């Protein structure tokens, strides 16, 4: 199984020249994780309008979806969720001993970025439909 | 053997549960996004449609599983990220309990929302 690896403090910006694909994958996974859990709290808060009544819920969601910035943020959220998911699959595979070589880990990280970009761009029409 | 980038020590219960919830989220998150953004568009969502879905026990339980897995995975992920940043001692204990309370609040409110969405059918 995995060996522990002391990567040091991430906020030590003096280490930026040491950044490797594995380090970027780790930083991106943490960043997207923070965004997703933050969004989850906000999402439950918005959905709590259902407790106030059916009309309040429908108007709240409809009102938010009428804001262009919200639609754009949804595209960003999809990008964040897709990357976190793909990188998570990558981490699960590595935990299972698949693709553990550093070169393979780097390639799978770059593949995660490319697939995330493709899915995100392809989803833009779906998310922005009716926004204008 | 190649060095592995793991957020925390393998073999612990929290490490195992983080992987289990990740596997659950792989399925439930994709289902959620697909169903509520690509099949039903978010802009067209009404309480009536939400209630129709949530009144179905299978869908309701899937969303509950999604909530529990997401809350645990997210809160535990934040805790591990903080440990990676070097928190120790009383700071670590304090933040652990802040996150536990935040996670419980998220779960309780999420369940209240789910029950309201089911319109009393569940």
UniProtKB/TrEMBL annotation, chain A:
Keyword Hydrolase appears in the UniProt entry: no
BP GO terms, sorted: tricarboxylic acid cycle
- Name a single GO cellular component: membrane
Any keyword Membrane? Answer: yes
Q: Which domain of life is it from?
A: Archaea
Regions that span the bilayer: 31-56, 68-89, 109-128
One Gene Ontology molecular-function label = succinate dehydrogenase (quinone) activity
Q: What is its EC number?
A: 1.3.5.1
Q: What is its main location?
A: membrane
Q: Which residues form a coiled coil?
A: none
NCBIfam families to which the protein is assigned, alphabetical: succ_dehyd_cytB
UniProt name for this protein: Succinate dehydrogenase subunit C (Cytochrome b-556)
Name the species this protein comes from.
Answer: Halanaeroarchaeum sulfurireducens
Q: What high-level taxonomic lineage is stated for the organism? A: Archaea, Methanobacteriati, Methanobacteriota, Stenosarchaea group, Halobacteria
Q: Which gene encodes it?
A: sdhC
Automatic annotation (TrEMBL), chain B:
Task: Indicate yes or no for the key word Heme.
Answer: yes
Localization, per the record, is: Membrane
Judging by the UniProt lineage, the source's domain of life is Archaea
Q: Name one GO molecular function term.
A: succinate dehydrogenase (quinone) activity
Q: Which UniProt keywords apply?
A: Heme, Iron, Membrane, Metal-binding, Oxidoreductase, Transmembrane, Transmembrane helix
InterPro entries documented for this protein: SQR/QFR_C/D (IPR034804), SuccDH_FuR_B_TM-su (IPR000701)
Task: Tell me where the transmembrane regions lie.
Answer: 16-36, 57-82, 94-115
Does Heme count among this protein's keywords?
yes
GO CC list: membrane
Q: What class of enzyme is it?
A: oxidoreductase
Q: What is its EC number?
A: 1.3.5.1
Q: What is this protein called?
A: Succinate dehydrogenase subunit D
């Amino acid at each position: 199984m995995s060996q522990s690896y002391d990567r040091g403090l991430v906020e030590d910006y003096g280490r930026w020249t040491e950044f490797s694909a594995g380090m970027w994958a780790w930083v991106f996974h943490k960043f997207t994780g923070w965004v997703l859990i933050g969004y989850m709290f906000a999402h439950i808060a918005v959905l709590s309008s259902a407790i106030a009544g059916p009309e309040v819920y429908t108007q709240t969601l409809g009102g938010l979806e009428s804001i262009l910035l919200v639609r754009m943020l949804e595209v960003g959220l999809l990008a964040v969720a897709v990357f976190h998911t793909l990188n998570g699959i990558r981490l699960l595979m590595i935990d299972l001993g698949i693709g553990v070589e550093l070169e393979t880990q780097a390639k799978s990280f770059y593949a995660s970025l490319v697939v995330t970009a493709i899915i995100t761009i392809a989803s833009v029409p779906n998310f922005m439909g009716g926004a204008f | 053997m190649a060095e592995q980038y793991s957020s925390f020590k393998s073999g612990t219960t929290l490490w195992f549960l983080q992987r289990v919830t990740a596997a659950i989220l792989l399925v439930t998150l994709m289902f959620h996004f697909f169903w509520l953004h690509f099949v039903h568009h978010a802009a067209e969502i009404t309480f009536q449609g939400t209630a129709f879905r949530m009144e179905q026990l299978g869908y309701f339980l899937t969303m509950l599983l999604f909530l529990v897995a997401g809350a645990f995975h997210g809160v535990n992920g934040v805790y591990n990220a903080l440990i990676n940043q070097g928190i120790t001692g009383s700071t670590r204990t304090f933040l652990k309990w802040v996150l536990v309370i935040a996670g419980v609040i998220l779960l309780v409110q999420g369940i209240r929302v789910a029950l309201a969405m089911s319109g009393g059918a569940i």
